[in-house]
Design a protein that fits this description.
405 residues; 7 helices; rod-shaped; UEV_N; ubiquitin binding
C-alpha cells in the first residue's frame, strides 16, 4: 500500500470543510452518505496519491449545472512492462455512493483517445464492468481505480500524437509534463499532490483506423487484426445487450418495489382492521357474559316467585309486584318511579302547550313545580345510592375474614 501523501491532513480538513457546508453553497449529497464519501476519498488519495479531491462544476446532459466533488489526477497502468499514467477525472454525482461515479479520461494536448475502444467512448466517458455492476455499499473508489489500471493496461485508451521519424518497435520515453488541465477553479487543495517517482514513457503510437491493437508498426498480421476487430465488435454487442438487459431489469425491479409498497400498506390496513375486530369480539363476549348472568338471575327469580302468584293473579297489586329487600331499596324504587312519572307529565305538558290546549303561564307554573319535585327526588336517589354503596362495601369487608379463613 502506498503511504499517504504529506498533506494528508490538509485533505482531511478540506473534505470535512466542504462536506459540512450548509445553505446554498452546500454540496448536493445526502447527510447519511457524507461520512462514507469522505472515507472513500481519503482511502483513494492514500492508495493513489496522484489523484486529488476537488470541487468543480459538473454539467449534466440536460444542461443542469451542479457543484460536485471530483478526484482529479492520473491512474498508473502497466503496458508491455512499462508504466504509464492515464489522466482521469472521477466525478462523484449527487446520488453517490448509492450509484456509481462518472469517470472520464482527460487526454492532454499531445494525446488522442483510441477509436473503437471497448470501454471508452470518443468523448472520454469510461464504462467498465465495475461501474455497471456497482453495488452499494461494498463498491468503492479504490477498487474502481485498481480496475481502471488493470483494464487500461490490457488495452490503453490513449495514444501520443507526436510524430515519429521512423518506426520503432520499442516505445520512446519522455517525462510526464502534466497530468491534467482542469477548467474548474473552485475548491482545489494547494497546488496538487506529489506524483510517484516514475518516469512515464511516451504512449504507444495510434492504431490503424480499423485495427484496434497496439504494438509494432507495419508488422501486424491481417488475421490478428481481423481477430482483434471481431473481439472488439463482440464486446460492443455484449455491452449493448447488457445495458438493455439492465434497463429492463431495473424497470421490472421498480414495478416490483411499487407493488411491494402497496402490499405492505395493505398488510398494515388488514392488520389494523383485524386488531379492531378482535377488540370488538372481546367487548361483545364480555357483554354476552353480563347478559347471561342477568338472564340467570331473572330466571332464578321467576322460578322462585312463580308459585307465589300462581293462584292469585287476579288479586295481585301492581305496586306490590316487586318487594324490596330493605328500606333503602324501597326508597330508591319510589324516587326513581316519581322521577320517571314527572318526566312523562312534563312531556305531556309540552304537547298540550304546543297544541294550544293549555295557557302558557299555567304551563310555566306547572313545569316549575314539577321540576322542583323532580330535583328533590333525584337528590334523594343519589344519597340513597351512596348509602347502598357504603353498605355493600361494609358487607364485603365483613365477609373478607371469613373467606380468608
Amino acid at each position: 500500500m502506498v503511504p499517504p501523501p504529506p498533506n494528508h491532513q490538509a485533505i482531511q480538513q478540506f473534505l470535512s470543510s466542504v462536506l459540512s457546508q450548509r445553505g446554498p453553497s452546500a454540496l448536493p449529497y445526502t447527510e447519511d452518505t457524507k461520512w462514507l464519501i469522505r472515507q472513500h476519498l481519503l482511502s483513494l488519495t492514500s492508495t493513489f496519491p496522484s489523484l486529488e479531491p476537488k470541487t468543480a462544476t459538473f454539467t449534466h446532459n440536460d444542461g443542469r449545472t451542479v457543484n460536485l466533488l471530483q478526484a482529479d489526477g492520473t491512474v498508473p497502468m502497466t503496458f508491455e512492462s512499462v508504466t504509464y499514467n492515464i489522466p482521469v477525472i472521477i466525478w462523484l454525482i449527487e446520488s453517490y455512493p448509492r450509484h456509481p461515479p462518472c469517470v472520464y479520461v482527460n487526454p492532454t494536448r499531445d494525446m488522442v483517445i483510441k477509436r473503437s475502444h471497448p470501454f471508452v467512448n470518443p468523448s472520454g466517458l469510461v464504462a467498465i464492468p465495475y461501474l455497471q455492476n456497482w453495488i452499494y455499499p461494498s463498491s468503492n473508489l479504490v477498487d474502481l481505480a485498481r480496475e481502471l489500471s488493470l483494464i487500461f493496461g490490457r488495452d490503453p485508451p490513449l495514444f501520443s500524437q507526436r510524430p515519429r521519424p521512423s518506426p520503432n518497435p520499442n516505445p520512446s520515453y519522455h517525462p510526464n509534463q502534466s497530468s491534467l488541465t482542469n477548467s474548474s477553479t473552485s475548491g482545489s487543495i494547494g497546488s496538487g499532490y506529489p506524483r510517484p517517482m516514475v518516469r512515464p514513457p511516451q504512449y504507444p503510437p495510434p492504431s490503424p483506423p480499423y485495427g484496434g491493437g497496439v504494438g509494432k508498426v507495419g508488422t501486424e498480421d491481417a488475421a490478428e487484426v481481423y481477430k482483434r476487430n471481431v473481439i472488439n465488435k463482440l464486446v460492443e454487442n455484449v455491452h449493448g445487450d447488457m445495458l438493455l438487459l439492465r434497463k429492463t431489469r431495473e424497470a421490472e425491479m421498480e414495478s416490483l418495489f411499487s407493488a411491494q409498497a402497496v402490499l405492505r400498506r395493505r398488510e398494515e390496513e388488514v392488520n389494523k382492521g383485524l386488531k379492531e375486530m378482535r377488540d370488538e369480539v372481546e367487548g361483545l363476549e364480555s357483554q354476552l357474559q353480563v347478559v347471561l348472568m342477568n338472564t340467570d338471575v331473572l330466571e332464578a327469580w321467576v322460578r322462585q316467585n312463580e308459585g307465589k302468584v300462581k293462584g292469585s293473579m287476579k288479586d295481585i297489586d301492581v305496586d306490590k309486584a316487586f318487594e324490596c329487600v330493605d328500606v333503602l331499596s324501597k326508597q330508591m324504587l319510589e324516587c326513581t318511579a316519581a322521577d320517571m312519572a314527572i318526566e312523562d307529565v312534563v312531556y305531556s305538558l309540552d304537547k298540550a302547550v304546543q297544541e294550544g290546549a293549555m295557557p302558557f303561564d299555567q304551563y310555566l307554573r306547572n313545569v316549575r313545580l314539577l321540576s322542583r319535585e323532580q330535583f328533590f327526588n333525584r337528590a334523594t336517589a343519589a344519597k340513597v345510592r351512596a348509602a347502598q354503596m357504603q353498605a355493600q362495601v361494609a358487607s364485603m369487608a365483613a365477609r373478607a375474614p371469613h373467606y380468608g379463613s
